Amino acid sequence: MTKFSIRNRIKSFKYAFKGVFYVFKTQHNAWIHLSILALVVFFGLFFRISILEWIAVVVVSGFVLMAEIFNTVIEVFLDKFHPARDETIGVVKDIAAGAVLIAAIAAAITGLLIFVPKIIVI
Q1: Would the pTM count as exceeding 0.70?
Q2: Which long-range contacts (CB under 8 A, 24 or more apart) does 100-109 make?
């Protein structure tokens, strides 16, 4: 076990950000998620959503981005160690993509619950 050091903690953040930037640089679906998140933030500011609504937006957005990152981990890992087409690996990748889809659907429903009543009032 290594000794605690501030330098190592800073390095760990550097590596974490490197991983996040890799996902946003290489994954088209991550771009879509970020674009939608930017719109949600814009409309959240425009409609002045409540602190609880912001909490919901932050939580579901975090789940979507986290699911996308885990999906990328699975895809990169499997492509590296088993580049040939394989039915089981295809199923694993589909399941990981399904997790992202479920998170995105939950986020979309949350967005509808927050924003539709505000749009209808206008």
Answers
A1: yes
A2: 100/29, 100/64, 100/67, 100/68, 100/71, 102/67, 103/60, 103/63, 103/64, 103/66, 103/67, 104/33, 104/64, 104/67, 106/60, 106/63, 107/60, 107/61, 107/63, 107/64
Closest CA to 73 of 37, 103, 97, 104: 97
Instruction: Return the number of other C-beta atoms located less than 10 Å from residue 104's C-beta.
Output: 19
Residue indicated by tokens 């619950």: 113
Continuous segment of H or E residues that includes residue 102: helix 87-121
Query: Each residue of 17-57: pLDDT tens digit?
Result: 999 999 999 999 999 999 999 999 999 999 999 999 999 99
Is the Cα dihedral 94, 112, 58, 37 positive or negative? Answer: positive
Average pLDDT for 93-112: 98
